[in-house]
Design goal:
The termini are far apart. The protein is built from 35 helices and 29 strands. The relative contact order is 0.06. The longest helix is centred in the middle third of the chain and has 19 residues, at 450-468. It is flat. The strands form 6 sheets. It has a 7-stranded mixed beta sheet with strand order 1-2-3-4-5-6-7, sandwiched between helices. By secondary structure, the chain is of the alpha/beta class.
Length: 929
């Protein structure tokens, strides 16, 4: 009978052989038989016993393995192993003494200690390293190291991390200027400290739009250049994000030389099944790396599918085994973007396979994320901080409520509705035999109400300018989230019709955009980002996470979201700061800037509670496409397969002969019933058959093999969609309400910040001193107001007069006038006085000056026997307008525009004579609001 110890050694032998080692007994040992030779039961010096395995590389001993039975704890074994490392007979060749590499292993669990590191510490590894890696490490040994402690070697990654050069935070390259934000500096600095402390995992939380990718490229560059990292794996969850990341790597300019990252180091976007061994950075979707480790092909389309919700289908995922084609040492660093989604059991195996430091990036962590990364949060930089630093813009929520959206509808029997085949989009008339009633949650999934979509779109059309962006002449770049592809189609159609614009105005951007020869999603995203058209992009979830489209200023939710982190990611499409020139390149107008964005909530998504938990219910709520995707990735769990079998049976009942024939063609000769029966039979293997578990598992894999074909999965989804969509053409929707939500977070925060500032600094800033001390006839100078404005515009306040005026309009609409006008700097006087409650209404400064001018003119005409001539009145009006824009006027001002074009100082003296100084004094005093 095999003992537990012997069983463990069998597993260890297999792992060593897989990693390229020649395994033998002492009696038949040949230390030159291979680059790496592992000798079992090797006798050591007297008093040291036997090493379970002594490892030779290139003919010299370098390490030992201590084998333990499965289930044994390894933490207390390190002292025993290190003792074996010191017991090699002096007559035998060794790379250094004591031997630098020590393992403890049960075959299922393995610990490794690298004696070349400073303060060597055991770490868990998935399997054993190839001998070639140990040779690379041994090359770091100083000459003539025999008898010396090797722990002082300066060359390992850990040693180099403790001697990193100072971070460059500002540099010029290729005519461009680069500067790291404080949060980016903190993230890189803290991460390097964490790595120097030999912490295996680190989490960076940075708000969407605050430069996570740029930060990542910055620290990856330093880890390669100065830390000696051999290769870095950068994991994303969708192909378009991989392409976007590759472009950012290639464009990154080194702070230390004149090279771009892509010129100095090879960066591979992994799209096939082969890792370029010369690449220093490999960018890959997590689903592709999972498939590669499993030794399976992955269809190109699968790279483009979001992994959201997939991991929740794997209660007990098929474990990843050692893959000799991709050794565990392939990467020194693994960076996982959107880390809050990649840590669950299916994808977690990818992260834990490699012997690498793991760095997570996320904008929306949850408790489980923190737990996975050992609570090692090296940077916490949330949305509020990013807004305060001017790295993000804040937002207002504009709520649109309609009767159908809030309560659904009922159509009486006898009316004619339409049904639409979701796959072919063919419509058929349908007369109701009974009343037809539907709830809000059924909208745009089972039932589509064109007038509900039209009412929402009309409201957006009619309200975006007066309520949201009053100074704009063109709809800002707008992103709309739809429920599914059919919903997105109808929204695009309605947008074009209601706005009276052409095809270019609104475009659908989903994974299916390119089907039938359409424009690729990547090109549509590029056009939306950098072109004037489209003005509106409608998507389901392709642009929901990660995709960088800075000019977006309106984000419309026409679908609900239950996941808090996914909602935050979707909302994050609008938070990114956009340079004025970039914004103006896709919008008309000279003075526009992105100082906020607007969430248009059409379904109450901002009002509902959301959860961080993962969906793990019975699979009824899981869409068929997610179930099929899970099976294609190797899921053979009972609940998933039984759910698929049941759905295949339902599909078969309603399938057309043409669809059934297509399934047979794509599945290799199997009908829908064959596919369903094959799954059921594989699930129902009787325990009395005494079938080995491996054979039972193979039966399941054989039954699900056809679903690995993307074309078959697509066909099944098309057939499912043929469950008709009911189109309610009868119900007329009615707008209930459309307004900014009361106490909008952004507006409230902005007003509070401004009022706190003026209250705290009323005794320090000249303009505030004057306005507080002499509230009605203040001798304000333009320079004083300009200085106040500069202070408000600068961090940490970043307060713009236009945004502040809009904030007051949001919170106190009945008290605010002129919200649609372009702001002048002098409007800041009106804002301060309104905040101080010196006036009851917020009125643009020029309007206040105009009112005061009319009152002064009327009083002059009543008391003065010599009324002003028409020409004098024209000059008085020019003086009025100058005061409105500049707070006052002086004699020298008549030498400049617009006065100089009409005669200047000489002409005004001619018109007013000796009365000129008196007129100027009165106007400066009376018109100052």
């Amino acid at each position: 009978m095999t003992t537990p110890e012997a069983k463990a050694r069998e597993t260890i032998d297999a792992l060593l052989v897989s990693a390229g080692w020649h395994v033998c007994n002492v009696s038949d040992a040949n230390i030159h038989a291979s680059t790496g030779v592992a000798i079992r039961e090797f006798p050591l010096n007297s008093g040291f016993g036997f090493a379970d395995y002594l490892l030779y590389v290139n003919g010299k001993a370098c390490g030992v393995i201590e084998a333990k039975k499965q289930g044994a704890t390894l933490t207390g074994v390190e002292l025993q192993s290190s003792r074996y490392a010191k017991g090699l007979p002096t007559t035998l060749p060794a790379w250094s003494r004591p031997l630098p590499f020590v393992w403890e292993s049960t075959g299922l669990e393995t610990h490794f200690t690298n004696g070349l590191d400073p303060e060597p510490r055991a770490r868990s590894v998935f399997a054993f390293f190839r001998p070639e890696l140990l040779l690379q490490w041994l090359a770091l040994l100083p000459p003539a190291s025999h008898g010396n402690s090797v722990s002082e070697s300066p060359g390992t990654f850990l040693a180099r991390m403790r001697n990193m050069p100072k971070l460059v935070t500002e540099w010029d390259s290729g005519g461009a200027h680069f500067e790291l934000w404080p949060a980016q500096i903190g993230a890189i600095t803290n991460l390097e400290k964490s790595l120097a402390a030999n912490k295996p995992k680190a989490l960076i939380q940075m708000a969407t739009g605050s430069g996570k990718t740029f930060t990542s490229i910055g620290f990856i560059y330093r880890l390669i250049k100065f830390g000696g990292a051999r290769r870095v794996l950068f994991l994303v969850d969708r192909g378009n994000l991989a392409r976007q990341t590759k472009k950012e790597f290639d464009a990154y300019a080194s702070p230390y030389n004149n090279y771009k990252f892509g010129e100095e180091y090879i960066v591979q976007h992994l799209q096939g099944g082969h890792i370029d061994t010369s690449a220093r950075v490999v960018i890959c979707t997590i689903q592709r790396m999972f498939s590669m480790l499993k030794g399976r092909d992955l269809a190109d389309e699968a790279d483009e599918e979001s992994t959201e919700r997939i991991e929740g289908l794997f209660k007990d995922p098929e474990p990843i085994g050692y893959n000799a084609a991709i050794p565990i040492e392939s990467f020194d660093i693994v960076v996982t973007d959107e880390a809050h989604r990649s840590i669950y059991n299916l994808w977690r195996q990818v992260l834990e396979y490699f012997d690498a430091y793991l760095i997570g990036l996320t904008a929306t962590p949850n408790k489980q994320t923190f737990g996975f990364f050992n609570q090692n949060l090296v940077m916490e930089y949330g949305h509020a901080q990013a807004v305060a630093d001017g790295v993000n813009v804040n937002y207002d929520v504009y709520r649109i409520k309609t009767e159908v959206t809030e309560a659904g509808a009922k159509v009486d029997k006898g009316f004619w509705l339409e049904t639409q085949d979701k796959a072919t989009r063919r419509k058929t008339a349908w007369q109701l035999d009974d009343d037809f009633e539907y709830q809000p949650e059924e909208l745009d999934r089972a039932v589509q109400t064109p007038d509900q979509i039209r009412t929402v779109v009309r409201t957006l059309r009619d309200r975006w300018q007066p309520d949201m962006f009053p100074t704009r002449t063109e709809l800002p770049k707008t992103l709309i989230f739809a429920k599914d592809d059919n919903h997105a189609e109808k929204i695009v159609e309605t947008l074009r019709e209601e706005f009276g614009r052409g095809n270019e105005f609104a475009q659908k951007i989903t994974y299916r955009s390119a089907q039938g020869g359409g424009t690729s999603p990547d090109q549509l995203i590029k056009d939306f980002r950098t072109g004037y058209y489209p003005r509106v992009a409608v998507t389901v979830d392709m642009i929901a996470t990660g995709t960088d489209i800075k000019p977006v200023e309106i984000v419309v939710f026409m679908r609900s979201v239950k996941s808090r982190s996914f909602f935050e990611q979707m909302k994050g499409r609008g938070v990114r700061v956009c340079k004025d020139d970039d914004l103006r390149s896709v919008n008309p107008g000279e003075h526009i800037k992105k100082d906020h964005f607007v969430i248009v909530d059409c379904v109450g998504v901002c009002e509902r509670d959301k959860t961080d938990s993962r969906p793990m219910d019975a699979k009824k709520s899981v869409p068929l496409d997610k179930l099929l995707q899970a099976v294609s990735l190797g899921n053979v769990e009972d609940e998933v397969l039984s759910s698929i079998a049941a759905r295949l049976a339902r599909l078969d009942k309603d399938a057309s002969d043409a669809d059934r024939a297509k399934v047979v063609e794509l599945s290799g000769g199997k009908t829908l019933r064959d596919l369903a029966r094959g799954i059921v039979d594989a699930l129902n293997i009787d325990a009395t058959q005494d079938m080995p578990p491996a054979e039972a598992d193979q039966r399941l894999r054989d039954a699900t093999r056809p679903f690995g074909t993307p074309a078959l999965r697509e066909q099944l989804l098309k057939m499912k969609q043929k469950a008709d969509l009911v189109i309610d053409t009868v119900t007329k929707d009615t707008l209930i309400d459309a307004r900014f939500t009361v106490g909008s977070d952004r507006a409230t925060a902005l007003v509070q910040s401004f009022e706190d500032f003026i209250n705290q600094h009323k005794d320090e800033i000249t303009a505030l001193q004057i306005l507080y001390s002499r509230p009605t006839r203040a001798p304000l100078k333009f320079e004083d107001v300009k200085a106040l404005a500069n202070t408000l515009h600068a961090p940490p306040l970043n307060i713009d007069e236009g945004a502040l005026w809009q904030a007051y309009a949001t919170l106190r609409k009945d008290k605010v006038k002129g919200a649609t006008q372009r702001r002048l700097l002098t409007d800041l006087v009106s804002l301060v006085r309104f905040a101080m409650q010196q006036t009851n209404e917020l009125v643009p400064y020029p309007e206040r000056v105009q009112a005061n001018f009319k009152a002064w003119l009327a009083q002059h005409q009543q008391t003065d026997t010599n009324p002003f001539t028409q020409e004098q009145q024209h000059w008085l009006e020019m003086i009025r307008d100058h005061i409105a824009a500049n707070l006052g006027i002086e004699i020298d001002d008549f030498e400049y525009a617009p006065f100089n074009a009409q005669g200047g100082l000489g002409k005004v003296h001619q018109l007013f004579g000796a009365e000129l100084p008196k007129v100027i004094e009165e106007l400066n005093r009376e018109l100052a609001a």
